[in-house]
């Protein structure tokens, strides 16, 4: 669910609260905060300044982090309740003792999860022989994300070869008292959580901490160079300076900015029309649609959705109502084919096809981004649209 914080999506139960771990984890954390005693602070600062003066700022940062005393935030919770395991036999906390464990909560239609994924993949590959085990916890946001065939398709398409715990009932999510996608937890070889990261970003610090934990576990020959990635398409970092449009759900439970005259009529087929004017960050339907709890469903050929937005990228989570079918569509921006502003799932004429239930990148504007009018027309029926996201 949407969050005001960049790079993070919060669950519906907690999207208006601050991030927190369980009270028990935080109570332990308070008693084991990083020990910034005077001697440690002065000696570490002196080493940082000395190395920095030699022109090795990156090495200085690595040294500083290596001297930090990481807190113990709690014990690694159980993976009981996992619906099924992919890419692995079932894993247990007892069986993971002796390994450094990175647990990544994600879901395959969340743009924030997808933009963090290149780093998780790279860490899994680089440190697998130094004792790191990466576990991706696929915790669904939408009902269709529980479909095991959809998940298998996603981890294949996204080149994920580390273990994936399918958490359809949010049992693991609840055990961690997790609240958002993405969220990464780092556990040491003794099964203790030592660090966590909510949302996108802070990748350098996370990797330095990961290296430190591997050394503490006895790993030798750790390559201190940070991973180098070149994310493309959906995985490319957002243009935060130009991003002025919020995540927008279409279902009647959470939608905002809906502008079709007469408003939404839940769970009923209705002919919708566009308003005379569409303000920024507002959207509207045209044609025969049914507005459901999670999505809007098109009942007849020719339905359209319009959105007035300001961002480099526009994505839409959508899919055929019946798995295995497909629906063609056409995208316009300011009333014209997108040309060089087309996303990775459409061509320059704006033509594309809905084939899977997933996130589609429909617009990627060249700089500078500006207020634009987006429209998608479906050339068939039987499609569902769930969620707009931007980047």
Short descriptors:
alpha+beta; Glutaredoxin; Jelly Rolls; eleven-stranded antiparallel sheet; seven-stranded mixed sheet
Which residue ranges are poorly predicted, with pLDDT under 50 across at least 5 consecutive positions? 12-66
Number of helices in the DSSP assignment:
7
What count of structural domains? 2
Instruction: Count the beta strands.
Output: 20
Rg estimate, integer Å: 23 Å
CATH architecture of the largest domain: 3-Layer(aba) Sandwich
Q: Percent of residues in beta strands?
A: 25-35%
Average pLDDT, to the nearest integer?
87
The percent range for helix content is 10-25%
What would you call the structural class?
Answer: alpha+beta
Largest sheet: 11 strands, antiparallel
Our measurement of the CA-to-CA distance between the termini, rounded to an integer number of angstroms, reads 16 Å
CATH top-level class of the largest domain: Alpha Beta
CATH superfamily of the largest domain: Glutaredoxin
What is the CATH topology descriptor of the largest domain?
Glutaredoxin
Taken in chain order, the helices and strands follow as: EHHHEEEHEHEHEEEHEEEEEEEEEEE
Q: What's the overall geometry?
A: elongated
């Amino acid at each position: 669910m949407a969050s005001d914080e960049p790079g993070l999506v919060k669950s519906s139960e907690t999207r208006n609260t601050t991030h927190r771990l369980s009270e028990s984890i935080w109570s332990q954390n308070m008693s084991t905060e990083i020990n910034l005693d005077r001697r440690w602070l002065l000696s570490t600062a002196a080493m940082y300044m000395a190395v920095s003066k030699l022109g090795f700022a990156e090495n200085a940062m690595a040294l500083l982090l290596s001297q930090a005393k990481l807190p113990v935030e709690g014990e690694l919770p159980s993976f009981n309740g996992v619906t099924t395991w992919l890419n692995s036999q079932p894993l247990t906390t007892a069986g993971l003792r002796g390994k450094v464990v990175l647990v990544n909560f994600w879901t395959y239609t969340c743009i924030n999860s997808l933009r963090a994924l290149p780093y998780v993949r790279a860490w899994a590959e680089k440190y697998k022989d130094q004792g790191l085990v990466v576990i991706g916890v696929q915790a669904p946001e939408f009902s269709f994300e529980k479909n095991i065939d959809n998940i298998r398709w996603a981890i294949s398409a996204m080149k994920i070869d580390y273990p994936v715990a399918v958490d359809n009932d949010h049992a693991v999510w609840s055990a961690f008292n997790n609240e958002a996608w993405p969220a990464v937890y780092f556990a040491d070889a003794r099964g203790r959580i030592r660090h966590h990261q909510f949302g996108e970003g802070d990748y350098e610090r996370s990797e330095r901490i990961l290296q430190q934990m591997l050394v503490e576990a006895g790993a030798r020959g750790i390559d201190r160079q940070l991973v180098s990635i070149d994310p493309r398409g959906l995985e490319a970092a957002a243009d935060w300076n130009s991003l002025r449009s919020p995540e927008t759900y279409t279902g009647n439970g959470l939608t905002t900015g809906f502008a079709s005259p007469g408003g939404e009529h839940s769970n009923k087929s209705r002919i919708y029309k566009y308003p005379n004017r569409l303000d920024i960050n507002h959207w509207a339907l045209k044609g025969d649609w049914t507005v459901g709890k999670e999505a809007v469903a098109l009942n007849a050929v020719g339905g359209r959705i319009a959105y007035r937005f300001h961002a480099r990228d526009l994505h839409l989570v959508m899919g055929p109502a019946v798995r295995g079918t497909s629906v063609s569509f056409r995208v316009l921006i300011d009333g014209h084919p997108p040309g060089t502003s087309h996303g990775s799932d459409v061509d320059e004429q704006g033509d594309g096809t809905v084939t899977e239930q997933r996130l589609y990148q429909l617009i990627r504007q060249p700089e500078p981004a500006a207020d634009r009018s987006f429209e998608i027309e479906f050339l068939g029926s039987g499609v569902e649209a769930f969620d707009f996201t931007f980047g």
